[in-house]
Amino acid sequence: MIAINKLQLLFFLSLFGWMSCSDDEDPVADSDVTFAGVEDSYTAPRGETISVSYTVSADDGLQSIVVSADGTDTPVAVTAGTEMYSGTIDFAIPGASLLDQSYTIDIVATDVDGDAATISTAVITGPVLATVPTTYEFTRDGASTVSYNGQNERLDQVAEIKSYLQTGDAGAALSAQVLQDAYANVGGDGNGFFSFSSTKQLEDKSFQPDLDDNFMSDLFAGVEAASTSGAIAANGVAGLIVRENSGNTVLVDAHGREYTQLIEKGLMGTVMYNQIYNTYFTDARIGADVENTEFREGANYTDMEHHWDEAFGYWNPPLDFTSDWPAERANEDRFWSHYSNTVDPHLRTNDAIMQAFIAGRAAIVNNDHPTKEAQRDIIAEQLEIVTAGVAVHYINSSLEALNEAKIGEAFHVMSEVWTFVNAIKYNPNRRLSIESIEEIKESDLGADGNFWNVTTDGLNKAKNTLVEAYPELADAKDQL
Amino acid sequence: MKTKLIQRKNINQIAGGLCFLLFLLIASCSDGDSPAPTPEPETNLAELRAAIAENIAENYIKLSFASLKTKNDLFIVAAENFTGSPSVENLNKLRAAHKDLWLSWQPAAIYQMGPTTTNALRAAINTYPTDADLIESNVSAGTWTIGAISNRAAEGLPAVDYLINNTTGSDEDIIASYIDDSARGDYLIGLVSYLDTKISVSTDQWQNGEFINAFTATSANGTDVGSALGMLINAIDLHVQRFLRDGKVAIPSGVRSAGIARPKATESYYGGFDRELLIAALEAYEGLFDGGGQSSILTYLRALDEGDLATNVAQQIDDAISLSNGLNDSFAQQIEDDNQQMINVFMELQELVTLIKSDVSSVIGITITNQDVDGD
Fold this sequence. Notes:
A: alpha+beta; 44% helix; B: mainly alpha; A middle domain of Talin 1
């Protein structure tokens, strides 16, 4: 937004006056002082210096020239009586200047008779990046300014935790303490759990109400008990259940919910999704007051750029991610970007989210807050559409599994429905109410939160609830 | 069987030889009025696809489900008559109604999509092998939850099969078991009522619901996964593999269990009319592909200048029917007598799966989305 200030008012008035003066047929056009060579406006990116060249002519000889740049008056040394003077004004656009922010330069020339004339011009802050890149690659002086190693490391931690849980699905005994140490990354390697060292942890990035409710630690305790009981899962009994398609077993709780899914997708929600919405998309991290001029110490990026990159890091797609992502590169998307790709053929979320991340990052480089905020809002909305779309996708899979009378397969995909619907609650501007989220988790997926009580009516009801809240899903609700 | 495999390969390669000549003979007989060998323009093909969807919806899907509902209503009456008054006559009437209903499910079962999936109708009607122990423990406990997934293997037509056809005793013994313990009749009626609910809801939706209306809408006349043809070919692919080939033949004959046969995993283990159920399913396919003189999948293949493939598909179904006709009524008996004949039928069905899954789908341009992998 351009602030209208006194200077600009002056600029407009002066311009009007100058234009009148320069008009030959204007009856009052008899000034003795005239300007040449000054453009209506000049545009350059923030931090750069603009040179404004001008020539002043005065038939009777010049007395004085004063340049007023952004309110600061500077007299120009001119020999009295000179009929023509050429000069250059160097104006440095401040590094903190916002995109489209305008600065006024007035040149006031007075002749020896005391006749004065003024010319005004505007220096406008243009974009640093005139075109938005097609991939998430941003550089300064040839070096990348994009960094989200902490997010990569946390995602790698989730992947290794999942691998451990899968040994339990195959029959090995699991330890709650091992999982807790991994979650808190004790000793920088999860107390010997991880294959790599990192200063980052998952637990301190988890949604605080989940920590209050022992969301993860209860699951860790439960999966240890289920993995060591030797029980075959049944209604009310946690243990192993066979997934009919592969013949492999998975561990489920007493309500049929699969631990590996609840923990892996639970971390996708309580850490990744939560961090995007409740940390990185807040004004505290990317609002207009966040540093976006000076670089972070030892880095070539600003705080705001880095915060946006960290949100991107929790989505974690390939840098050239697009819709219609080729199957041969399917292993390059991870976690949330992977699930965007799952629904992309119907919802085109890869392009929608990727382009918004790129455009928002470019807007930050350009110090363009309205564009950045608009892109943030697009991402926030589209990520939720992915989440709801994936939930509908797995409801369809659940119905297919039930139609084939495959309980293990049904519980697996119902566990996914549970976790994706649960994740919606982390968006502070969610379209689905907390009550609807709870209803799906605790009733539609089986009375009393028990998958063993599931009915097709309950699943179809959950699907309708989601499609009503997200009309974007309506056309593809049966194909998802 | 071996000859046939070679034949198909030769057709595909347009190679010479006796088999090819044989093929020409067949093709010229059955393809007398085939169109000129230039592919149809796309607009005509889109119209043809719309006509196929219309024909299949009106003359196959809706009629199959109407018949299913009619047989279901007769089955309810027979079950109520029998439990109200257990007698040999009423038992036999119930057996006949039960078999009629099961046979009427075979053509309807092809459509593994839409209301059938959203109501899990297939599982409700035809989950087998049935769990006789669970049925008995339900009856002796006198309490059960019909519709709960943990009870699924003790429900549906195979469970009724056990309850009315269990051959461990005479018919009089069966009747006595209902007279002695009313819980048995209550359980039977519970199963029948649940089936009625599922069949009624699904049939209503199939006759005039969102799905079938979308299926015949002009917007569904493409070949993408959401098109009528896309959904139909995927539904058929699922049914042919999992329920026709595997459920009815491959699993009981041991093809899926290291060659160790599982005679108790046959469809009507107690009633012993597996052959009729299989042939009803195959004949349903024969009719569906042919289209009854109207637009059909085979008509479409010919319009794509794929008359050879159309002939092959029809011939393959015929061959499977011919070979199945030689099987015992009871597949459990057939497995015991000569399991190789079951395996031979499996191989015919495997050929049919390949034709549909690979050839038909790729020629039409349909992406097969069914997957058997865990994924994540």
